[in-house]
Amino acid sequence: MAKLVGIVAALGALAVIGVAVAASTTTYSYRATLTPKNEVPAPNAPAKAAGVFTATVTDKKGKASIRWTLTFRRLSGKAVAAHIHKGASGVAGPVVVPLCGPCRNGQNARTAIDHDLAEALEKGGYYVNVHTAKNAGGEIRGQLKLLHG
């Protein structure tokens, strides 16, 4: 009987450890709809240029990463780069995560990011844009929106 109690106690301790490990991992999903009308300053871009950026940020024990996918269409030329920037809607801001350069439609990757940035993304105030040679400052842009976490 004492052996059974010991086994039950050990299993209970393992369950608590498992819950603690699971609790130390957070995952958040984001989406941005990219259009020329969102870009600052306004680009000289085709009216039907558009794109979608989706991402999942995973933060596990202070080590974070972002897995993302970028699609776009009807740009004025090849996508020479794409980034995540810090900036509210209507405000241009600094690059915080370089995504690709050059970029191809449907591109996806996983990139390590800082734990503090992973937490900051949850609060909003970040956007994604795609740059072309004709619109070096950005041709299409969309604010990151938290879907769930």
What do you see in this structure?
- This protein has helices spanning 2-23, 115-123, and strands at residues 25-34, 50-60, 63-73, 79-86, 95-100, 107-113, 126-132, 140-143, 145-148.
- By secondary structure, it is of the alpha+beta class.
- The chain has a single domain (26-148), classed as Sandwich (Immunoglobulin-like).
- The strands form two sheets. A five-stranded antiparallel beta sheet has the order 6-3-2-1-9. Strands 5-4-7-8 form a four-stranded antiparallel beta sheet, with no helix packed on it.
- A hairpin with a 2-residue loop joins strand 2 (50-60) and strand 3 (63-73).
- The chain is elongated, with a radius of gyration of 21 Å.
- It starts with a helix and ends with a strand.
- The model is unreliable at 7-11 and 13-22 (pLDDT under 50).
SSE topology sketch:
Elements: H1 2-23, E1 25-34, E2 50-60, E3 63-73, E4 79-86, E5 95-100, E6 107-113, H2 115-123, E7 126-132, E8 140-143, E9 145-148
Antiparallel strand pairs: 1-2, 1-9, 2-3, 3-6, 4-5, 4-7, 7-8
Essential attributes:
single chain, 149 residues, alpha+beta, Immunoglobulin-like, 5-stranded antiparallel beta sheet, 4-stranded antiparallel beta sheet, 2 helices, 21% helix
